[in-house]
Amino acid sequence: xxxxxxxxxxxxxxxxxxxxxxxxxxxxxxxxxxxxxxxxxxxxxxxxxxxxxxxxxxxxxxxxxxxxxxxxxxxxxxxxxxxxxxxxxxxxxxxxxxxxxxxxxxxxxxxx
Length: 112
Prior knowledge:
The protein is an all-alpha fold. It has helices at residues 3-13, 22-69, 83-98, 103-111. The two termini are 62 Å apart.
């Protein structure tokens, strides 16, 4: 082939110049921001899980120690004013507080 034919083919096959794809850039930036938020939320959830597991372990250990301190002649009945009863009351109160509905988080997530 001649040089003129090669130049003509190159001109016909050349891609037209175009600017940057703004929609792609915007989607990529949003994906990066969403990923950062997910990483932060995941880290926060694992931290909260670790603290709650530590608190549960401490409560179980305290309850076990209180049960060991109970008199041997109690026949499995927890006395009303015993340390075990106090531990049970604290355990029930802790469960009530930890099971509260998280309506604020649901309302915030629906707003986005």
